[in-house]
Design a protein that fits this description.
5 strands; Rossmann fold; binds cytidine-5'-monophosphate; 202 residues; single chain; alpha/beta
Length: 202
């Protein structure tokens, strides 16, 4: 039997860190589905047509630090609003979720659209101010300058685009467990997520 953990939530809420830790803890495979949209966004920035880029995506396209830039994140959230792009990426995600060793997928619509029957659904969130501060700290650690106000505006803009789009908007599944990480350390947030998975995995 397959076992799928769906982790959704807005940018910089901690879902990637939590998803990686949960996958490592239980020996499951992990897919950061944001990378699919980032890879399509990067191809579009290089001149490709969005739907064709999504259809032609290969695992190699998901590698590289170049996908982590703010410009690619913006492009990703724009292509992610195109229904044909989303449709082209569904099969890859569902095949990954069906792996026999279990899978953790993180993104925006895993619990609502991609894996509505996932055994565990977590919706990881944090206040926009808290997420902007974390992003600022991440950038500072890489030696990249930024201001809190600019990053907060980017966080809010991406939240609005992801939540207000017509196709697969960012929202918690009705049966998702909410995990607000605003006042939690990484260790505390991971421990809560691991406990949720352990409780359902038996
Ligand atoms: O999570 P990450 O910041 O890498 O995602 C980049 C963008 O890809 C998001 O802002 C969102 O628009 C889109 N995305 C999505 N559905 C997913 C994962 C990401 O629409 N499952």
């Amino acid at each position: 039997m397959t076992f799928t953990v769906a982790i959704d939530g807005p940018a910089a809420a901690g879902k990637g860190t939590i998803a990686r830790a949960v996958a490592a803890h239980f020996g499951m495979a992990h897919l950061d589905t944001g990378l699919l949209y980032r890879a399509v966004g990067a191809k579009v920035l290089a001149g490709a047509a969005p739907e064709a880029a999504a259809r032609a995506l290969t695992p190699d396209d998901l590698k590289g630090e170049a996908l982590r830039t703010q410009a690619v994140a913006e492009a990703a959230s724009k292509v992610a609003a195109i229904p044909e792009v989303r449709a082209a990426l569904v099969a890859f995600q569902r095949t990954f979720a069906a792996r026999s060793d279990g899978a953790v997928l993180d993104g925006r619509d895993i619990g609502t659209v991609i894996c509505p029957a996932a055994q565990v659904k977590l919706y990881v969130t944090a206040s926009p101010e808290c997420r902007a501060q974390r992003r600022l700290d991440e950038l500072a650690a890489k030696g990249i300058a930024g201001t809190f106000e600019t990053i907060l505006a980017e966080v809010r803009a991406r939240d609005a685009r992801d939540s207000e789009r017509a196709t697969a908007p960012l929202k918690p599944a009705a049966d998702a467990v909410m995990l607000d990480t605003s006042d939690l350390s990484i260790e505390e947030a991971v421990a809560r997520a691991v406990a949720e998975v352990a409780a359902r995995r038996g």
